[in-house]
Amino acid sequence: MNESRLTELETKLAFAEDLLETLNETVIRQQRQLDSLQEQFRLLHQQVRDSQSDAEPATPREEIPPHY
Q1: Percent helix / strand / coil, the chain, rounded to 5
Q2: For the chain, what is the radius of gyration of the CA atoms?
Q3: SS3 call for 67
Q4: How far apart are CA 21 and CA 54, in angstroms?
């Protein structure tokens, strides 16, 4: 009985270690994706800011009324 209990615990430990490794790889992959998205957002934000600073401010006469 003691031997089967030890085998059962070793089996559970092996599964737990495998699950932990899988979850760790998932977290690493998601962090890389998050880092990539943050960099893309930063670049997009910079482009928008640059395009706004390059554009001349429109006068109210040049703007299209909201009902058009």
Answers
A1: 80, 0, 20
A2: 28
A3: coil
A4: 49
d(CA 31, CA 19): 18
Phi, psi of 60 (to 5 degrees): -55, -30
How far is Cα of residue 68 from the mean position of the Cα atoms in its chain?
Answer: 39
Give, rounded to a whole angstrom, the gap between the first and last alpha carbons of the chain.
83
At 44, list the tokens: 């997009």
Q: What is the pLDDT along the chain (68 residues), one digit of tens a residue?
A: 699 999 999 999 999 999 999 999 999 999 999 999 999 999 999 999 988 877 665 666 666 777 75
